[in-house]
């Protein structure tokens, strides 16, 4: 099936061709015609499935079908994190490059004034994180009264991060008549409730089964002692001559320490996490993408939605304490038809986490002990929380109410 048979217009087909895409992905095949028919959509799709083009292409087409004079916000895309907002913004610009629409990204952590100027100049499409969007609403620097399309991207993450009330506030000021699209990787009861209140007889689209890991990712566990993980990571990077690897740590402190050690070992590295300024995060990501740094060390929240084409290696330096995060992490590799490798360095402390992950993904992950790093059988498991105050204090609380307000993101 080709993109043209999905009913997309010439300017979009040309932009798609420029990207080198030859075929729509499964989510695109399903979502594009349904969205073009004007229906609300509830879509289950993870990052890496091509979901962004799946909603951006039909959105741009529909905006183009009904030309309006002047620029006012007709489409609002909400995302949980700044990184995802920036990436969706890039996609809108990429796919819309032969169309006359103006779009911009609105998120916190950067000065509000340039955003106000852009809003004043007129925009057709706004991609925003909820917190900063509401700042603009309260300052009356944004007019959402003419929104025709609302898209919630990674809605499950938005709820996880405590944005439900912000979302409700935004919904309350949007025009009642509009097309709504909700994308989520998972379907908790909370998501179903949100979908019920937001969507009008939605078409249901699901491409990747909940919590299933994609088949083209080779997963491996390297058992190792906790104090030798850094050494093993350096060994793997050097032996494999890895040029681009995303490494996950559980904590911000751990990310910084690991970055410093890699640099000491002569491996260029950068870290991204919530304590870094937006500019520092953007720079780290850019350096990683253009090959200036080989290793990007990230925490789960900071890494959400990072989109890097054909990322060949993802390493779990530490297993996540929330099993679903494992699926999200390794979803950064093996994307859109490219193979990828997800490696986890697992020490004796983490066996319970591993059990939880294997139960969730319903498969046993192959283990491969590297001879020089064979774990010492006499080392006893230690509870992860007690090793240091820094450990685990960034674990995502189960409910938003448990989370201190300064951990709220998107402002
Ligand atoms: P997403 O799931 O939206 O984050 O997209 C994942 C990656 O797939 C992005 O890097 C896109 O550029 C890429 N992509 C999207 N659609 C296609 C397609 N039809 N063919 C090949 N790559 C695609």
Question: How would you describe the overall organization of this protein?
Answer:
This protein is of the alpha/beta class and 411 residues long. It folds into 2 domains: 3-206, P-loop containing nucleotide triphosphate hydrolases (Rossmann fold, 3-Layer(aba) Sandwich); 217-373, P-loop containing nucleotide triphosphate hydrolases (Rossmann fold), CATH 3.40.50. The chain has 15 helices and 13 strands. A 7-stranded parallel beta sheet has the order 3-4-2-5-6-1-7, with helices on both faces. Strands 8-13-12-9-11-10 form a 6-stranded parallel beta sheet, sandwiched between helices. β3 (103-106), α5 and β4 form a beta-alpha-beta unit. α2 (26-36) packs parallel to α3 (51-65) and α14 (323-330) crosses α15 (351-361). The radius of gyration is 22 Å and the shape is elongated. It starts with 9 loop residues before the first helix and ends in a 50-residue tail after the last helix. The model is unreliable at 386-411 (pLDDT under 50). The structure holds adenosine monophosphate (AMP).
């Amino acid at each position: 099936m080709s993109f043209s048979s999905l009913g997309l217009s010439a300017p979009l087909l040309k932009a798609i061709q420029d990207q080198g895409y030859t075929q729509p992905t499964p989510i695109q095949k399903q979502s594009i015609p349904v969205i073009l028919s004007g229906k609300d959509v509830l879509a289950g799709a993870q990052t890496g499935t091509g979901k962004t083009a799946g909603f951006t292409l039909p959105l741009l087409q529909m905006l183009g079908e009904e030309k309006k004079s002047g620029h006012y916000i007709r489409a609002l895309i909400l995302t949980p994190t700044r990184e995802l907002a920036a990436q969706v913004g890039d996609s809108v610009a990429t796919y819309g490059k032969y169309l006359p629409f103006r779009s911009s990204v609105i998120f916190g952590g950067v000065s509000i004034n340039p955003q106000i100027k852009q809003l004043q100049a007129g925009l057709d499409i706004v991609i925003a994180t909820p917190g900063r969007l509401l700042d603009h609403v309260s300052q009356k620097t944004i007019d959402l009264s003419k929104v025709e399309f609302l898209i919630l991207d990674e809605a499950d993450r938005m709820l996880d991060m405590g944005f439900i009330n912000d979302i409700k506030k935004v919904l309350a000021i949007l025009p009642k008549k509009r097309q709504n699209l909700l994308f989520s990787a998972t379907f908790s009861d909370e998501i179903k409730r949100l979908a019920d209140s937001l969507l009008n007889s939605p078409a249901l689209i699901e491409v990747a089964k909940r919590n299933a890991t994609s088949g083209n990712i080779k997963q491996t566990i390297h058992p190792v002692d906790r104090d030798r993980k850094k050494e093993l990571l350096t060994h793997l990077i050097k032996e494999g001559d890895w040029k681009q690897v995303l490494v996950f740590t559980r904590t911000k402190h751990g990310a910084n320490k690991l970055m410093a050690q890699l640099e000491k070992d002569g491996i260029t590295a950068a870290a991204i996490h919530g304590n870094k300024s937006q500019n520092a995060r953007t720079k780290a990501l850019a350096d990683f993408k253009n090959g200036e740094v080989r290793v990007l060390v990230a925490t789960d929240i900071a890494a959400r939605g990072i989109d890097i084409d054909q990322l060949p290696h993802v390493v779990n330096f530490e297993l996540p304490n929330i099993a679903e995060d494992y699926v999200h992490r390794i979803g950064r590799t093996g994307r859109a038809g490219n193979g990828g490798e997800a490696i986890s360095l697992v020490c004796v402390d983490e066996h319970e986490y591993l059990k939880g992950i294997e139960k969730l993904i319903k498969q046993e992950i192959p283990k491969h002990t590297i001879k020089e790093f064979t774990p010492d059988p006499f080392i006893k498991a230690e509870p992860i929380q007690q090793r240091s105050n820094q450990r685990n204090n960034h674990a995502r609380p189960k409910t938003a109410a448990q989370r201190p307000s300064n951990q709220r993101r998107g402002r």
